[in-house]
Amino acid sequence: MEFHFSEENLSKLSGVFSKYPNKKAAVMPVLYIAQEQNGYISNEVISEVSKVCEITEEEVMGVVTFYTMYHQTKPGKYHIQVCTNVSCMLRDGFEIYDAVKEKLGISNHGVTGDGLFSLEEVECMGSCGTAPMIAVNEDFHENLTKELTLQILDNLKQV
User: What is the chain's percent helix, strand, coil content, to nearest 5?
Assistant: First the structure.
């Protein structure tokens, strides 16, 4: 399946490129726009981003694989990221992660059969003072317990 930026997104890219000293420096916002359009970063997206940013596909892939905000597979409607880094780990982050895995029946980078949920274990989301935490898409939920986390998932099923 081929990927090309929509006309609307090509206009956005012009604005993005005007903010950077060169196209290579704009790779992160370009990837974000591509992911919004495509739903995830496929090989075709990587190829197109490398062309518009005038860099190699390997350079694009280096950015995609370094940052957790880029998804290489199509995430569920609700992408659940569970932090298990030090602060979260010390406050039961692994127990929360295990409870989410069990409740959803999926492992790291998995997607439920109905496409409603995807799961990702992440290193740090910058919420150490309010650990443990999860993110649901772009929304942070902090100072969690296993029970509160499972309630969040139940509430999402009802939306």
Answer: 50, 10, 35
